[in-house]
Design a protein that fits this description.
Number of domains: 2
Number of helices: 7
Strand content: under 5%
Distance between the termini: 43 Å
Largest sheet: none
CATH architecture of the largest domain: Orthogonal Bundle
Number of strands: 0
Helix content: over 70%
Order of helices and strands: HHHHHHH
CATH superfamily of the largest domain: Uncharacterised protein YqeY/AIM41, N-terminal domain
Length: 155
């Protein structure tokens, strides 16, 4: 089952069970996906967002909510921070399981090998391989420096 169908089914289920927070979060996800579809059509891609695009959207939504929750906590608005964290839990239920540090290190080594990277100039190739295989499963903000370290150590 593709991601968009899973989200739509979850939205219907949330409506039936009257879960207001879950329903509003799923509607936000659906709106973001529709915005992406409109942007893709404008760019000449009539197929709309694929699962990898949807995973990227969800990852971005989680990141935004983490930043908002942190800001709310700093401002003493704990009830709003908790609302953001609840939305994060709902969004993350559609993301694949995050990889452990060992799995990430192994994936980086594999990506370096398959891309034929041998210096820091090839970092883009390695990141491209990782993003194509592991979108939504690893934090690329953390992975970037790890790839850089591995490439600089092998040079």
């Amino acid at each position: 089952m593709d991601m968009q169908t899973r989200i739509t089914d979850a939205m219907k289920s949330a409506m039936k069970s009257k879960e207001a927070t879950r329903l509003s979060t799923l509607r936000l996800i659906n709106a973001a996906i529709k915005d992406q579809a409109i942007a893709m059509r404008g760019a000449g891609n009539p197929d709309g967002p694929q699962d990898s695009d949807i995973l990227a959207i969800l990852g971005k939504m989680v990141k935004q909510r983490n930043e908002s929750a942190r800001t709310y906590e700093e401002g003493g608005r704990l009830e709003l921070a908790e609302k953001e964290r609840e939305e994060i839990r709902i969004i993350e239920s559609f993301l694949p399981r995050k990889m452990s540090e060992d799995e990430v290190a192994k994936a980086i080594t594999e990506a370096v090998t398959t891309s034929g990277a041998d210096s820091i100039r090839d970092m883009g190739k390695v990141m491209g391989v990782l993003k194509s295989k592991y979108t939504g499963r690893m934090d690329f903000g953390v992975v970037g420096p790890m790839v850089k370290n591995q490439l600089s150590a092998s040079a």
